[in-house]
Design a protein that fits this description.
Mean pLDDT: 85
Number of strands: 31
Number of helices: 3
Radius of gyration: 29 Å
Strand content: over 45%
Length: 610
């Protein structure tokens, strides 16, 4: 019976009409197009029971309006059983989704919009910084509501509410990676007596379950909510200048089961900028934060940490005054100077530090040499006890075209750069190079290389390093490419994976068990071809190996992903086939590596009934 339905469906594909916009009644106007397909699919491995058989798949796009586009518009975008093997959906599993959006009263003073979407069994990624992450699969739901009040001669007001939830699992483990969030924002802006003023109020809530397959023990589940109010005002000043003032209030609470955090902070800032001469600009400003621990905790929470514990002492706060000056000495020569005075209360002790920096920039642009920019300078800092030492700032950027080559390179180095804590400094360097060459009329080669290294100057083991290399060769409608990435250093464990630690301060100060060391490498190759019209063939292979380390557990991890796809189009129909193979293992999970393979071949037909 099922086979008969499939053959009947294939017959319908051949006779589906193409149409134009349709009007239903006097007020409803719609357009629709999409793809319908049928084919044979099979999957096997130890990730799920093996299965095979004939099945249907497809997607549709419906849009239109009622009465008038300025009154009510709508879009619907469902798809069913779509994956990278039979369509452009980037999922290794057969995913289905339904998305709907509406626009309401867009031509009035009270425009609004509502959107909702649900995705089933779609693959995702549990990220690793700088290299290929772990493949996941699960469901996602999203809701968005936006409304505005745009009344004449009154401040415009807009409100947005978003809600999302994700529930997924990581291949090769038996743990869930779940998260839920709700976000509400209310904002307005207005110009009065030469002042441009903006205000925003926000409420944010999240609940996350961070899997513990890299750290051992139980999954970390926590709730976090925060309230934010921000006001900003700016005005033009003499000498081609401008001034601004900003106030921000943050209150937050986090419950991580074992750890809890709560607090609030008041942030004030002011700035004045002047350009008394076309070659000279100067700015003065101040920033005050009433709770330095809260600033660090909230930035970590925004990165995905659950109830991070940051202890900078009772009553920690920070006050900074600064001055920045830039002068153009010659056409290609400029210099900038900065002075920062920072006063902080940290660990019950008052600390005052003055940072100085001066940098000279020189640019050369000649047909023979190409474009070269060189900069160099020094950083220095001193406390009331005396000078704390100087550091170097230097770099060069180069680009030039010659004999068919287009090349570029750059390097920068910064030593003893200030961080969140006035007494802690960091050093970093980065480098990059690129080359492009047209080898013949139809043959081209591209290549890129980059790297970055950073770490606290006085803390051993705080460094992070990453490198990336990629190369591609293009010949007519053929291409082949390769990439290599390496990364090591301290990372923060979140519901979305490992992320680079967002703040360069000692981990001991952060006081959280969500940090681990990562050392990993990933590489891959890809190719695509269109040997003749209407036929495309593509494939890729990626492999990653990493090791994560906590004080009590070391996990050796690996993943391999192979993908191949081909499509041949004839008129409004197409034949497609694909193959996917995933092998992924997480050493600390105690489970055997996941082995998952699937393939598909079938036929699709584009349609546009109206």
């Amino acid at each position: 019976m099922r086979l008969r339905i499939i053959w009947l469906f294939l017959g319908l594909l051949a006779v589906l009409p193409a149409g134009a916009q349709v009007t239903v009644g006097d007020n409803l106007s719609m357009r629709m197009d999409g793809n319908l397909g049928a084919g044979y699919t099979a999957d096997y491995g130890n990730a799920q029971p093996s299965d095979h058989g004939l099945g249907l798949n497809g997607n549709a796009n419906v849009n239109g309006y009622y009465y008038n586009p300025g009154f009510f518009t709508f879009t619907l975008s469902p798809y069913y059983n779509r994956s990278q093997e039979n369509s452009g959906v980037q999922s290794i599993t057969n995913a289905s989704s339904f998305n709907v959006g509406t626009g309401i009263f867009s031509g009035s003073h009270f425009p609004g919009a509502i959107s909702w979407g649900k995705t089933f069994d779609s693959s995702g990624n549990f990220g690793l910084p700088g290299i290929q992450g772990f493949t996941t699969h699960g469901d996602t739901t999203q809701l968005g509501i936006a409304w505005s009040a745009l009344l004449p001669n009154l401040p415009p007001v807009s409100a947005q509410y978003t809600q999302s939830s994700t529930s997924s699992s990581v291949f090769g483990t038996d743990q869930r990676d779940d998260s839920t969030s709700r976000n509400f924002n209310l904002q307005s802006s207005y110009r009065l007596a030469g002042w441009w003023m903006t205000a925003r109020f926000g409420e944010f809530y999240s609940r996350s379950q961070i899997p513990a397959f890299l750290t051992g023990g139980e999954a970390n589940i926590g709730d976090q909510n925060s309230t934010t109010f921000n006001y900003n005002a700016s005005h033009r000043l003499p000498l081609r200048g401008s001034g601004s003032f900003s106030y921000t209030y943050d209150a937050y609470h986090g419950d991580g089961g074992i750890t809890n955090m709560s607090g609030s902070s008041n942030n004030y800032s002011g700035n004045a900028t002047f350009q008394p001469w076309t070659r000279l600009s100067t700015s003065f400003g101040m920033q005050y934060n009433s709770n330095l621990s809260a600033v660090v905790e909230q930035q970590l929470a925004s990165a995905g940490s659950i109830a991070p514990q940051v202890n900078l002492g009772t009553g920690s706060h920070s006050l900074m005054f600064y001055n920045n000056d830039t002068v153009s000495i010659l056409r290609n020569l400029s210099a900038s100077f900065t002075v920062n005075r920072i006063e902080q209360e940290v660990f019950g002790t008052s600390v005052a530090v003055t940072h100085y920096s001066g940098i000279v920039n020189y640019r050369i642009q000649k047909p023979l040499w190409g474009s070269i920019m060189v900069f160099g300078g020094v950083n220095d800092q001193s406390t009331d006890a005396g000078n704390q030492g100087a550091g170097l700032v230097a770099g060069v950027n180069f680009s030039r075209m010659f004999a068919g080559w287009d090349v570029g390179a750059g390097f920068s180095y910064a030593q003893e750069v200030e961080t969140v804590l006035a007494t802690s400094t960091t050093s970093n360097y980065s480098y990059q190079a690129s080359a492009r060459r047209r080898l013949s009329r139809h043959l081209q080669w591209y290549s890129n290389f980059s790297g970055f290294h950073t770490g606290l100057s006085a803390v051993t083991g705080s460094a992070s390093h990453s490198e990336n290399y990629s190369s591609t060769i293009l010949y007519r409608s053929y291409s082949i490419g390769a990439n290599l990435s390496k990364s090591y250093g301290t990372a923060l464990l979140t519901a979305n994976g490992l992320v680079t630690t967002p703040l360069i301060i000692p981990i001991a100060v952060l006081g959280s068990n969500q940090y681990l060391l990562l050392d990993g490498t990933s590489w891959g190759v890809n190719a695509s071809a269109s040997p003749f019209r209407r036929l495309t063939v593509s494939g890729s292979y990626a492999r990653a190996q990493s090791q994560t380390t906590t004080p009590t557990l070391t996990s050796a991890n690996s993943s391999q992903l192979l993908f191949a796809y081909t499509q041949y189009q004839f008129r409004k129909m197409s034949f497609s086939g694909g193959f996917t193979h995933l092998m992924q293992g997480v050493g600390a999970s105690g489970m055997p590596p996941t082995n998952f393979s699937s393939y598909y071949f079938g036929i699709q037909r584009w349609f546009k009934p109206f």
